[in-house]
UniProtKB/TrEMBL annotation, chain A:
Segments forming domain Peripheral subunit-binding (PSBD): 139-176
Keyword NAD found: no
Domain of life of the native organism: Bacteria
All residue ranges annotated as the Lipoyl-binding domain in the record: 2-77
Quaternary structure and interacting proteins, as annotated: Forms a 24-polypeptide structural core with octahedral symmetry.
CC cofactor: (R)-lipoate
EC number: 2.3.1.12
Cofactor binding mode and count: Binds 1 lipoyl cofactor covalently.
Protein name as catalogued: Acetyltransferase component of pyruvate dehydrogenase complex
Keywords, sorted A to Z: Acyltransferase, Lipoyl, Pyruvate, Transferase
UniProt organism field: Gracilimonas mengyeensis
Protein's GO biological process: pyruvate decarboxylation to acetyl-CoA
Automatic annotation (TrEMBL), chain B:
Annotated source species: Gracilimonas mengyeensis
Record keyword RNA-binding present: no
InterPro entries in UniProt: THDP-binding, Transketo_C/PFOR_II, Transketolase-like_Pyr-bd, Transketolase_C
Domain named Transketolase-like pyrimidine-binding: residues: 4-179
Name used for this protein in its record: Pyruvate dehydrogenase E1 component beta subunit
Length: 419, 327
């Protein structure tokens, strides 16, 4: 009896997984518990294990290809077993067998046509969410194709809302170009880089979906505060000098300051949930980590209760895992607040998009050498700007300002964090 | 404008043409002394006499042959069938002779004949009395086919049909004879064969429906309007030659099309129109053309089965929702 190996649900939000690698090939013998493949989900690269033993009779998906949840990836069984039945059904993306046995006598041809179409649609939509099918062909109505050509829109960038992901008129009308095309080029000849199309990774899809949703749904507003970092610089030097095996960063200090401020301003440590605002009892601070293909947000749990040394070592470990794409979903879930720091790139200040379901995100800029006025005299100062993006459904301007002032007080009086 | 029943519009057209041209005469079962099985020749016997209003025996092949011969010899006969379901008996005359004589004689023989009568189903009449034949006649070169939906179209087009020098199949419906409608009282009111009409303007979807199905589509359009869908309803009126430019222009505006046809699906009017649209308007389509037709099943007698068999407004609405991606 052959056994189908289907794409498992490896994270709460995954809709499809990309086969990162196969650890077995056709003909291999596997036992229950063997890791047969690595699958890239929207969150991480995860291992898929076999639950049964047998011979790998067929591998249906190439490395690098996406499979929808429940889609057939491979077939296990006894050597020489006939699996043509299973392979025939493979087209419907592993969805439960279609029930078209009933109403056969109702030979109404129109209905038959409709049934056939619906079945087709099911097959199409389960095999792919975007408008491209496995063969890379973009499905678009002839009209949509023409409109896209007239407007200079690349169909590959348009999501199709029709059956099977077909791009239709409405999709072209609603399409918004991310950037206006450059002005007409002068008639000079330039060497150009090769134009290419980069396949959208699972991570990019997730970033695109979540951040678009956040930016378009949450009414963002922004408040920036300038913080005197001299005391924090001194405190960091003292700590790092005193302990050889500890090396805390400014970001660790900012995480700690925010975590403490969040316990005092619980409305910032909350989530919008339609009928209610959830004010979280625990403070879990996510830290945005830039990696090669995008960005991840590992979470420092109970950051308010942890010391700087622990925050520092955890952050370093999680960032390392993130860069290796080894973060587990539970290490990325459950944040109540997020910090994004671009100070190391010399960015003076910036605004960040709220990381759902958080109410706020804080964007941290670089520490700058600036002249400041102290006691009526201009003296050298160390200043850092932080910008809080808040969801106005939850947090109002004055409340956000109060939170920022607490953060500033803590950073300007680091000893207060010990309280 | 005068409000006339469908049967009165038919009679007015025949009357005016008989009055205008002495070579026009009508024959068929019950057309004379009984004033027509559906009273569409009422009073004509009294006005024109037995020589031009002729009762025939129940012999469709025979009297159709007489009609074809009369047309060959220069008269302009109108042959009435009690229903086109009975005209199958006369197919040798209609298809082998009427449609081909002009062609086979290199145009030496003209065939100014009209075959007319009710077409398609009319309630619980059983499988042999419920067939829509317009697609079948339209298959044959040499025949023009008209199946109108409203009295005004019927009058203007029947007059054109009688004046045409080619054989014309002119179709009506038992269920529409009593239907009233405004009819132009313009002198010598003529509608050219091959001209369709936009009977309702809309921007979201083009629905093509003729004959009895026009009224089904009209009902669907009224429902859809409440849902915010504006249907452009085209009645081609003439099945062949088809007013394709009218349909194509409409689709350029709406980008979607549903064809409603009272015939069976295989090789019918809806398939032909669907084909022509994909060829002529491919680049304007935002969805595959859908059709609503009879199923590929003979007419049932039972009332519930019959109701399920005949296309209704709901089926049209479903098809419109499909092409407008609203389902």
């Amino acid at each position: 009896m052959a056994i189908k190996i289907e794409m498992p649900k490896l994270s709460d939000t995954m809709e499809e997984g990309v086969i990162a690698s196969w650890n077995v090939k056709e003909g291999d013998q596997v036992s229950a518990g063997d890791i047969i493949a690595e699958v890239e989900t929207d969150k991480a690269t995860m291992e898929v294990e076999a639950f049964d033993e047998g011979t790998v009779l067929k591998i249906l998906v190439d490395e690098g290809d996406a499979v929808p949840l429940g889609g057939l990836m491979a077939v296990l069984g006894e050597e020489g077993e006939d699996i043509s039945d299973i392979l025939e059904g493979a087209g419907d993306g592993g969805s439960s067998s279609s029930d078209d046995s009933g109403d056969q006598e109702k030979a109404e041809e129109d209905d038959k046509e409709k049934n056939a179409e619906e079945k087709e649609e099911k097959e199409e939509s389960s095999s792919s969410d975007s408008s491209t099918s496995d063969d890379g062909r973009i499905k678009a109505s002839p009209l949509a194709r023409n409109m896209a050509e007239d407007k200079g829109i690349d169909l590959a960038k348009v999501d199709g809302s029709g059956p099977g992901g077909r791009i239709i008129k409405a999709d072209i009308e609603n399409y918004k170009e991310e950037a206006a095309p450059a002005a007409a080029a002068p008639s000079q000849q330039f060497e150009s880089l090769e134009s290419k199309e980069v396949k959208v990774s699972q991570m990019r899809k997730t970033i695109a979906r979540r951040l678009s949703e956040s930016k378009f749904t949450n009414p963002h507003f922004y408040e920036t505060i300038d913080i005197d970092m001299k005391p924090a610089i001194a405190a960091r030097k003292q700590i790092n000098d005193a302990n050889e095996d500890v090396k805390i960063s400014f970001n660790d200090i900012v995480v700690k300051a925010c975590a403490i401020a969040l316990t005092r301003h619980q409305y910032v440590n909350s989530s919008w949930s339609d009928d209610v605002i959830k004010q979280h009892g625990d403070v879990h601070v996510a830290v945005a980590v830039a990696i090669e293909e995008g960005l991840m947000t590992p979470v420092i749990r109970h950051a308010d209760k942890k010391g700087l040394a622990q925050i520092s070592s955890e952050t370093r470990e999680l960032a390392g895992l993130a860069r290796d794409r080894k973060l587990q979903p539970e290490q990325m879930e459950g944040s109540t607040f997020t910090i994004s720091n671009l100070g190391m790139f010399g960015i003076e200040e910036f605004t960040a998009i709220i990381n759902p379901p958080n109410a706020c995100i804080m964007a941290v800029g670089a520490i700058r050498d600036v002249p400041v006025v102290e006691n009526g005299e201009v003296v050298p100062g160390k200043r850092m700007k932080v910008t809080l993006s808040s969801d106005h459904r939850i947090v109002d301007g004055a409340k956000a300002a109060e939170f920022l002032n607490t953060v500033r007080q803590l950073l300007e009086n680091p000893l207060a964090m010990l309280l | 404008m005068a409000e006339l029943q469908f049967r009165e519009a038919i009679k007015a057209a025949i009357d005016e043409e008989m009055d205008r041209e002495e070579k026009v005469f009508i024959m068929g079962e019950e057309v004379a002394e009984y004033d027509g099985a559906y009273k569409s020749t009422e009073g004509l016997l009294k006005k024109y006499g037995f020589k031009r209003v002729i009762d025939t025996p129940i012999s469709e092949l025979g009297f159709s042959g007489i009609g074809v011969g009369a047309a060959m010899n220069g008269l302009r006969p109108i042959v009435e069938f009690m229903t086109f379901n009975f005209a199958v008996l006369a197919l040798d005359q209609i298809i082998n002779h009427a449609s081909k004589a002009g062609y086979m004689t290199g145009g030496q023989i003209s065939m100014p004949i009209v075959f007319r009568g009710p077409n398609a189903s009319a309630g619980q009449l059983g499988a042999t009395h419920s067939v829509a034949y317009d697609s079948m006649y339209a298959h044959f070169p040499g025949l023009k086919v008209i199946y109108t939906s409203e009295p005004d179209d019927a009058k203007g087009l029947l007059k054109s049909a009688i004046r045409d020098d080619n054989p014309v199949i002119f179709m009506e419906s038992e269920q529409m004879y009593g239907m009233k409608g405004e009819v132009s009282d313009e002198d010598d009111y003529i509608i050219p064969i091959g001209k369709g009409k936009i009977k309702r303007e809309g921007s979201d979807v083009t629905v093509v429906a003729h004959g009895k199905m026009y009224h089904v589509a009209k009902q669907a359009a009224a429902q859809l309007e409440k849902d915010g869908v504006e249907v452009e309803l085209i009645d081609p009126r003439t099945v062949k030659p088809l007013d394709l430019p009218l349909i194509v222009e409409s689709i350029k505006k709406t980008n979607r099309c549903v064809v409603v046809d009272e015939a069976h699906p295989f090789g019918g009017f809806a398939s032909e129109v669907g084909f022509l649209i994909q060829r002529e308007a491919f680049d304007y389509l935002d969805a595959p053309v859908q059709r609503v037709t009879l199923p590929d099943v003979n007419a049932p007698f039972s009332k519930p089965l019959f109701d399920a068999w005949l296309p209704d407004a709901k089926q049209v609405i479903d098809a419109v929702n499909q092409v407008t991606y609203r389902n």
